[in-house]
Amino acid sequence: MGIWSIGHDHGHHAFSEYQWLDDALGFVLHSSFLTPYFSFKYSHRSHHAHTNSMEYDEIWIPKRKADTLYSEVLNNPLGKGNLFMTVVRLLLSFPMYFTFNIHGREYKGFASHFYPQSPIFYDSERKQIWLSDAGMLVAFYALYKVAAATSATWLFCIYGAPLLVMNVHFIFFTFLHHSHPSLAHYDSREWDWLRGALSTVDRDYVIFNGVFHDVTCAHVIHHLISIIPHYHTVEATKAVKPILGDYYKYDNTPILEGFWRETKDCIYVEPDEGAENSGVYWFRK
Ligand SMILES: [Zn+2]
Which domain of life is it from (predicted)? Predict the structure, then answer.
């Protein structure tokens, strides 16, 4: 996950002064973790450009109560706070997001990070989506060769299982960055970039902050100025905290407790009662 985070820095052009170097290194790193580099770079850029917009954010757009499939299938004792469902979501959401845009923005047409004609991308980006796919094919071929030279079990222990752990972390972090009872979502009547960027929360993963290159505890600054490389984000957070005052969101609830609470309490969003047309939405359970 730490190395994947460096690939994420590359996607933000936060590693080097040369775009080609960022892209070359990010492409190799992310492809080797079965992440389509350019596809994610572009959809992630859109996430940063539209954070917490009900219409245009790219990931973790909360459902409304009226979404009956969601509220009836998941918001019940089986889905809500259910350990089995939670584990399944943690394990599968990462590949499902890339492949089928699960948890992603609603698009007309087939939205997938692997499909160059996907509505996620602009026409000028489509060639690079092919390149992302080629990187994934090369990675799969290399894994096939390694499995053939060793064994599938060996490959699973050395690569597959750690990759699953990484996938879980990615979903765990990003869910917790964008899901908290104090965070609002906005539709086009109220959304603006700064409101969205400030609607994300830093958390304390104690000794694991360093392991994960502080993406855990310095996400607010990452949304404000995404070209700051990970190794300066803690310092930058300290600098902006006094300026942001109450606009800076931080929660130091023990991380597993926070995850369980948000899983149960941040199910869907609705406007405040009597303010149905306010354009501002809050998490409900
Ligand atoms: Zn980012």
Answer: Eukaryota
